[in-house]
Amino acid sequence: MSNRRTFAIISHPDAGKTTLTEKLLLQGGAIHLAGEVKARGQARRARSDWMKIEQQRGISVTSSVMTFERDGVTFNLLDTPGHEDFSEDTYRTLTAVDSAVMVIDAAKGIEPQTRKLFEVCRLRSVPIITFVNKVDREGRPVFELLDEIADMLALDVSPQAYPVGMGGEFEGVLDFATGCVARPEGPSKEFLGTRDCDPSIPDRFAEEIELAQIGYPEFDLDAYRNGDLTPVYFGSALKNFGVTELIEALAKHAPPPRPQPAGDDKVDPEQDEVTGFIFKVQANMDPNHRDRIAFMRMASGTFKRGMKLTPSGLGKPIAVHSPIMFFAQDREIADTAEAGDIIGIPNHGTLRVGDTLSEKDKVRFTGLPNFAPEILRRVQLKDPTKTKQLRKALDDLSEEGVIQVFYPELGAQHIVGVVGQLQLDVLVSRLAAEYKVDAGLEAAPFDTARWIKGPQAEIETFEGFNRANLARDRDGDLVFMAKSAWDVNYQQEKHPELTFSATKER
């Protein structure tokens, strides 16, 4: 268990996350040739991007898991969508990791999406290693980048490397720990393994490097693991600079499996009882088999194939006969798994996001939220005979976190909610490709949704006056469909005993 490193890579679109993912897999021996996980045609993508819409657009819109080993350490890399219109799937993936790598473009610095993902990490005190990418191209001054990370994210920064020049002046990357410079070679100026450990550094760079070493805090393991300090590495994923140093830093500094929140308690990864939680459900990874995989983050104990575990949503044990370890969409049967590992459990709708699985059914993990949707649309079915297929598809996709689905108390048209525009395109694409349902989306008369809680008598009174604005989510919980933020505030003032919540914890 202490040799497990479960981490995610977070970044803005085009910062180089997919390329970095590929190079980490190359370092870990999970692939043997750079480029072999790229798609044919123009959509450049790592093997982790397998959904049809991802192949068409060359972006990641769902999260995948890749497990690989290097020097006795097992790495579980959770790939998160970097597109600005990401989904709740991204938030939930970040609840299943123990650390994260934040990728920043050297020319652009911290962009809005990076900051949004960082804030999700901060909520859970997830420690972050920063990788400043593309230093072989023209970029912003190094001190400007370091100070921006410190100021915008309120983190101490501790540079562990330094680029010797950028763009046309690029002469390599100095590793502070060894004092060696990784040098560019050949016509493409890649790193081919040559490290100069007695480097002669031009004076115009030497002074900056000395300032970087003395002007910022030294690396402090406790501060990093508490989420207060980020070590910063510089490199170029495309040209192989800094990738080895990054994976070695993950092995050396990133925390092993951390205790997981369970109400007022925490479950220690070293306890004997096998426990875990479902943070993602993915339908149709293999469209030929209409399969359904629940991704479980192991929280404690040693899981053995065939073991019986009780899901919190079911109450009776199920035998896990065919647990899966992943390399993106490639998979193999897992005989054992330790705390920190991610295993896939094939099922037919038994397991849902937020479910806790345990041997004794006495643990409930907390902290996997639903968020109020930012965009609401009515679903318009073009073939009325496919109503049943549409309902099944919406249930499946809402369970995955692609969308939220609301069933109005009055009226027949389903309403879907998403946190980003891209998810609507994903919805329409997957309805057609996987469920053979031709549907369109039209504007809904609502702006946002709030979950209602409070005394039953008050809820019934509220329902009597507002039935046209009420719906049920897929769990059957009551939801107020508001036309505006003003509408929410008005109802809150009128019904002070009720809570109108923008989040719902599973």
What does this structure look like?
With 506 residues, the chain is α+β, with helices and mostly antiparallel strands. It has three domains: 7-56 and 100-254, P-loop containing nucleotide triphosphate hydrolases (Rossmann fold, 3-Layer(aba) Sandwich), CATH 3.40.50; 261-358, P-loop containing nucleotide triphosphate hydrolases (Rossmann fold), CATH 3.40.50.300; 369-505, 2-Layer Sandwich (Alpha-Beta Plaits). The protein is built from twelve helices and 33 strands. Strands 28-25-27-26-30-31-29-32 form an eight-stranded antiparallel β-sheet. Strands 2-3-1-4-5-11-6 form a seven-stranded mixed β-sheet, with helices on both faces. Strand 30 (470-473) and strand 31 form a beta hairpin. The longest helix has 14 residues, at 387-400. The chain is globular and about 80 Å long.
List strands and helices in order, with pairings.
Elements: E1 4-11, H1 17-27, H2 52-57, E2 64-70, E3 73-79, H3 88-93, E4 99-105, H4 112-123, E5 128-133, H5 142-153, E6 156-159, E7 161-163, E8 173-175, E9 181-185, E10 190-196, H6 203-215, H7 221-225, E11 229-234, H8 243-253, E12 260-262, E13 265-267, E14 275-283, E15 292-300, E16 302-304, E17 308-311, E18 318-319, E19 324-327, E20 330-333, E21 336-338, E22 342-346, E23 356-358, E24 369-371, E25 375-381, H9 387-400, E26 404-408, E27 415-418, H10 422-435, E28 439-443, E29 448-453, H11 456-466, E30 470-473, E31 478-482, H12 485-494, E32 499-501, E33 503-505
Parallel strand pairs: 1-3, 1-4, 4-5, 5-11, 6-11
Antiparallel strand pairs: 2-3, 7-8, 8-9, 9-10, 12-13, 14-15, 14-23, 15-22, 16-21, 17-18, 17-23, 19-20, 24-33, 25-27, 25-28, 26-27, 26-30, 29-31, 29-32, 30-31
